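User: What would this chain look like folded?
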Amino acid sequence: MSGFENLNTDFYQTSYSIDDQSQQSYDYGGSGGPYSKQYAGYDYSQQGRFVPPDMMQPQQPYTGQIYQPTQAYTPASPQPFYGNNFEDEPPLLEGINFDHIWQKTLTVLHPLKVADGSIMNETDLAGPMVFCLAFGATLLLAGKIQFGYVYGISAIGCLGMFCLLNLMSMTGVSFGCVASVLGYCLLPMILLSSFAVIFSLQGMVGIILTAGIIGWCSFSASKIFISALAMEGQQLLVAYPCALLYGVFALISVF
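Assistant: Here's the prediction, encoded as structure tokens.
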């Protein structure tokens, strides 16, 4: 053990002493203090010496309350267009012009009457919906439940005529206007389906009557289209696809 103690003493032998650490001082500023810094004597009151007095703005006192900022703008609550009461609600028939419906019906029933383009160019689907229901009802009286075919063929025919008229006319036309005109011109077809309830249309008389009804519907529709879209001299070109559409409805009525 004596050899180990001698080895340990020789390994850690040094001239450093703990008493030397307590006597050290960190005089960085030359003031003699142990923790003095070179910027310890800086006068912070001289910072604003070079700021002009006109650039210094006086502080405004805060007049509001803490966590409660003053609201400069108060949004107004939206007012309903109609009142909240039941008496202030608009009527159900508002927007339906019965005078224009009657004039369009007379224009279809009288093929030689001049059509008013300003009235025919309106998107009115009240009359066409009634005429489609009446056509399906007369077919139902004849024992034919064809409501799905009526609405399906009407939708496809309106889409086809809409594309065709937009290609032929310079002004263009809306889908609602095409559906309105074709729906109003379905009125003579209701007469044909009503005749089918009374007697059969598969004879010679039925064929002549059916051909006349198809010509009536197509002529009325083409007359309204050329009047509303200013397509002078193109009535036969418009009447041909209309005759194909109303011919399908006639086949449903006859067979």
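The radius of gyration is 48 Å. If you want, I can go into more detail on any region.
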